[in-house]
Design brief:
- Helices cover 6% and strands 44% of the residues.
- It is mostly beta strands.
- The strands form three sheets. A three-stranded antiparallel β-sheet has the order 2-1-8, with no helix packed on it. It has a three-stranded antiparallel β-sheet with strand order 3-6-7, with no helix packed on it.
- The longest helix is centred in the middle third of the chain and has 6 residues.
- The protein is elongated.
């Protein structure tokens, strides 16, 4: 499977901009027990996250460097689940550990 993930590409000098992030693809293994296949619907980039970009970290979480995948609030749609009791559908998530979206399309 292919994973698309949002990464920090530049430490902001002032206001955080969309250009400070990029979407990158990488191959990942098949879905394992305890994992879910999701599609990212909304990703929150809030003030707590902004203070962690390029820094040591805060009470909100660890610092985020260039190439890191930030953790943030998100709304995802569960496409496939290997977690008992978690069915496909849209799920408001209190915290998404890394803005990664798995896709089931194959690489050539």
């Amino acid at each position: 499977m292919i994973c698309r993930e949002v990464q920090l590409t530049a430490v902001p000098d002032g206001a955080v901009r969309a250009e400070d992030f990029g979407v990158f693809e990488k191959e990942v293994g098949p879905l394992r027990d305890g994992q879910v296949l999701v599609e990212l619907r909304r990703l929150g980039l809030n003030a707590g996250l902004a203070h962690r970009l390029g820094g040591e970290g805060t009470a909100y979480g660890p610092g985020i460097g260039v190439g890191d995948v930030p953790s943030s609030d998100a709304v995802v749609e569960v496409l496939k689940s290997a977690v008992e009791g978690l069915s496909p559908g849209i799920s408001p998530s209190p915290r998404c550990r890394g803005a990664r979206q798995l896709s089931s399309r194959r690489t050539s």
